[in-house]
Amino acid sequence: MTSEAPPPLAPPAEGEMVTAEHDGAVVAVAMLDGALHGFDDTCPHAGCSLSEGELDGRTVVCPCHMATFDVATGAVVDGPSIDGVKTWPVEVADGALVLGEPRDPEPAADEADAGPSTDDRPETDVAVLVELEHGAMRRQFEALDQLTDAAELTASWTTLRELLEIHASAEESVLYPRLARAADEGAEEAEHAVHDHNEIRDGVRAVEEHEVGGEDWWSALRRAHEVTEEHLQEEERDPLPLFREHTDRARREELGREWLDFSERHRHARGLAGEDVDPRSVVEGSG
Ligand code: FES
Question: How far apart are CA 111 and CA 202, in angstroms?
């Protein structure tokens, strides 16, 4: 064991997770059957926070697209992630979490041992993926409200900021061009959604202008939260039901695979500038 993790120092309760900063990494620590497991909090698929997900048996399920990892070995058990996650040995000394040296993830189990049947595979209906990411955004905004440490705020905000951009760009690339073609009202809904995305991008840029954790930063974050929540509610009320009405399940699953590919290619918002997008270009690029 080499160094002590900063707060939260106390180990998590049974079935719970906490995060600890350790040598520049955010490490999720889970308590399962009385044993502590440390693993990289950042999902290798598209950068969501695994500690915002769910523990299921000895696995953790990512809240964004349901990649599933063995918490003890870091191996991929299921879902869209190709890579596993690093793990850390964890001990408790004087009531504080102490992390050892990270270990590379073990390879994924053979398919024959992999466990989940085809029926248990993660959902790839694009509309469901959109809704899952809405849930992840809401949880991440709420989680920020519980933090005070500047390093933790920075790490959590970075993950959320990246998710907001990946999500908006994926919708503009995969979902809205198809909706514009599929339904009479689709073009209008698509333009409106991209306008909302640009408002959210304005909100993200405003947060970035301020010192993390300062009064102005919190004020800009609350504004970004408001415009995001307004958009999520509108999207769940109008364009998503319209999209479902005008596309069949097979088409939505095909688009779901495109969505996952897009998220993987743009992990950590790689290649996405976060600049405003012309709503007409999304509608006209639908051919
Ligand atoms: S499954 Fe974790 S970010 Fe996609």
Answer: 45
Structural domain spans, the chain? 3-110, 126-284
- Taking only Cα atoms into account, the Rg of the chain, rounded to an integer number of angstroms, comes to 20
Helix axes 239-246, 186-208, angle to 10 degrees: 140
> Strand ranges (DSSP E) for the chain?
3-4, 17-22, 25-32, 35-40, 54-56, 59-61, 68-70, 76-78, 87-88, 90-93, 96-99
Amino acid identity of 203?
Answer: G
- Whether the bond into 7 is cis, omega within 30 of 0: no
Task: Return the pLDDT at 141.
Answer: 92
Phi, psi dihedral angles at 286 (to 5 degrees): -90, 0
| Residue 279 structure tokens | 């709503």
Q: In this predicted structure, what is the pLDDT of residue 122?
A: 54
Give the residues of the chain that fall short of pLDDT 70: 1-9, 109-123, 286-287
Give the Å distances, CA to CA, from 229 to 52, 56, 85, 86, 199: 18, 28, 31, 33, 12
Amino acid identity for residue 256 in this structure: G
* Category of 186 on φ-ψ map: left (φ > 0), alpha (ψ -120 to 50) or beta: alpha
**Ligand 1 centroid from CA 88, angstroms:** 20
Q: Which residues line ligand 1 (CB under 6 A)?
A: 43, 45-48, 62, 64-65, 67, 79-81, 263
Q: What CATH number has the domain spanning 3-110?
A: 2.102.10.10
| Span from the CA of 287 to the centroid of ligand 1 (angstroms) | 29
- d(CA 24, CA 72) in angstroms, rounded, equals 21
pLDDT attached to residue 191:
97
